[in-house]
């Protein structure tokens, strides 16, 4: 996939964001997208090949791996990045609609370029709520999949066609836990920024 499309999308909305919103974009670019591309993807890339069980029963290792990791960590994290960024599309569509109306009426609807007002403000607030909601959903999903953000060194598996309980070993579990905690920290930081920007905008425009 092309991450450049996502970068262009967020950069286009950035000029309408507050200072808090610009910090959110920086966090997404530096601490989430770049870390994903540079480190996380490589850590989990060969997870299936490095997953080992102390039995050679055909199919046992595969079903144990599927039982432990029902969803690919790489794909799930990529989906998280996409979902928390795409609410910005609402703002992009609203801006495109505004520009279309301005061209049709040959006059500026908003006198201050880059200023959030009226319907655009509502759209922007909705996008912040959606971003926060997606963060919460994915954090809950990661928590459920990884039993409280834990990657054990040893897993006991008794799923068929394994003839009995077998021991399976996960590669680099400590490193994976560190990056899981980093994922949680950056997600919580983004949620905090979204809620702070939401509160700031509501307070600012309610005072007006």
From TrEMBL:
Domain Connexin cysteine-rich stretches: 134-201
Membrane is among the record's keywords: yes
Gene3D superfamilies, alphabetized: Gap junction channel protein cysteine-rich domain
Pfam families referenced in this protein's UniProt entry, alphabetically: Connexin
Residue ranges constituting the Connexin N-terminal domain according to the UniProt record: 42-75
Molecular function terms, GO-annotated: gap junction channel activity
UniProt xrefs under PROSITE patterns: CONNEXINS_2
Location relative to the cell: Cell junction, Gap junction; Cell membrane
InterPro entries in UniProt: Connexin, Connexin_CCC, Connexin_CS, Connexin_N, Connexin_N_sf
Gene Ontology terms: biological process: cell-cell signaling
Keywords: Cell junction, Cell membrane, Gap junction, Membrane, Transmembrane, Transmembrane helix
Segments traversing the membrane: 20-39, 78-97, 118-143, 178-203
Topology in the lipid bilayer: Multi-pass membrane protein
GO cellular component: connexin complex
Protein function: One gap junction consists of a cluster of closely packed pairs of transmembrane channels, the connexons, through which materials of low MW diffuse from one cell to a neighboring cell.
Family of this protein: Belongs to the connexin family.
Assembly, per entry: A connexon is composed of a hexamer of connexins.
PANTHER family: CONNEXIN (PTHR11984), GAP JUNCTION BETA-7 PROTEIN (PTHR11984:SF26)
Protein name per its UniProtKB record: Gap junction protein
Native organism: Buceros rhinoceros silvestris
């Amino acid at each position: 996939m092309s991450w450049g499309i996502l970068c262009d999308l967020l950069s286009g909305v950035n000029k309408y964001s507050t200072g808090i919103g610009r910090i959110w974009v920086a966090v997404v670019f530096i601490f989430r997208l770049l870390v994903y591309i540079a480190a996380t993807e490589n850590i989990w890339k060969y997870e299936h090949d490095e997953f080992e069980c102390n039995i050679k029963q055909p199919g046992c290792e595969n079903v144990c791996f599927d039982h432990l990791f029902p969803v690919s960590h790489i794909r799930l994290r990529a989906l998280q990045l996409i979902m928390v960024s795409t609410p910005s599309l609402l703002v992009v569509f609203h801006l495109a609609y505004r520009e279309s109306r301005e061209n049709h009426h040959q006059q500026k609807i908003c006198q201050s370029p880059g200023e959030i007002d009226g319907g655009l403000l509502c759209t922007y607030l909705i996008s912040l709520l959606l971003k926060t909601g997606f963060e919460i959903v994915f954090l809950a999903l990661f928590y459920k999949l990884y039993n409280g953000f834990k990657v054990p060194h040893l897993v006991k598996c008794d799923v068929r066609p394994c003839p009995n309980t077998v021991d399976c070993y996960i590669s680099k579990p400590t490193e994976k836990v560190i990056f899981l905690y980093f994922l949680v920290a950056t997600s919580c930081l983004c949620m905090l920024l979204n809620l702070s920007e939401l509160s700031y905008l509501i307070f600012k425009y309610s005072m007006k």
